[in-house]
Design brief:
By secondary structure, the chain is mainly α. It contains 16 helices and no strands.
Amino acid sequence: MDLKRLEGVVVPAGSLDSLGSPPEQGRVAFDRVEGMLLGLAIGDALGNTSESRFPGTRRDAEDREAEIRDYQPNRYADGARVGVPSDDTQLAFWTLESLIEHGHVVPEDLAARFARRRIFGIGQTVRAFLSAYHAGLPWQQAAQRLAGNGALMRIAPVVIPHLGRPSMDLWVDAILAGAVTHNDPSSIAACVALTGILWEVLAMDGLPQPTWWLDTYCSRAACIEGEMRLTPRRPGLDFHGPIWRFVDTEVRQTLARDLPVLAACDRWYSGAFLLETVPSVLYILGRHADDPEEAIVRAVNDTYDNDTVGAIVGAVVGALHGRSRLPERWVSCLLGRTTEADDGRVFELVRQARTRFCSTAMGV
């Protein structure tokens, strides 16, 4: 593990030692890896045509009583009901593209890739990062200290180069992949914790208990995030502290009450602030991880920043169940773009990742 790679990143001294090495994996079927990647793209595509609308009013354009369970007409595809990406898919698959080329996270390369292409629906933090980067600042200085969800949404591919080879370098790559734009303790902690969850579910037999998602997130996020003082945007929530503690208290109590996803996410709001996104993702997984279609549908219909929540939930349930459990209608109608006109690129990168990383020698 080369700690010099983390120079300039706001990670507390000793936090990596607290994380320890990732657990050993058994055999990982490529179906699970493919499910993780396509689940991310599907969740994004299902949600991005109705992003940032209040969940209670988001419905199919032709049937106001129906839930969104399929792709909506898309103006970037001549009105066809097909899956088209936003920034969630783009940044995740450009990260995968960089990993295929270099074999590990190279933040300078990620920054350059993000900067030279058009990003659809770009978030405020990534926009601020790119403004500073285009002004000539190195990525360490251009990165923003903000707890938005723009790093977490793209973190899933980071696990792939490490499959079958668990080491502390997994955490280093997760930290760098997020910190290149979001050099913030809460964001970095979330990226590491989600990476750990994905690592474990890719090789998991059966389903974890509903509280496993909360326990596993908190166990890894706490040593990095510490006692950051974040305040909810939702009036009436008396909380000031780190995301992991909010998960351990508010989300755990709400899960015990078994509230529907819409009601639960409305308690803390479900926007792009990580104090909202992380609780929403973990709550949906706690209630619906057994059914990948329903988990993604709930994310798309019942949250405000629904393309990003859908992308993260899609990646996790795809990793848990595999591509074979994702509805074929979603896969077949996904255009697989990462730019305006590179249809099929997502599927090509999945194939390249299999060739590059998932060899028989790795047990994958």
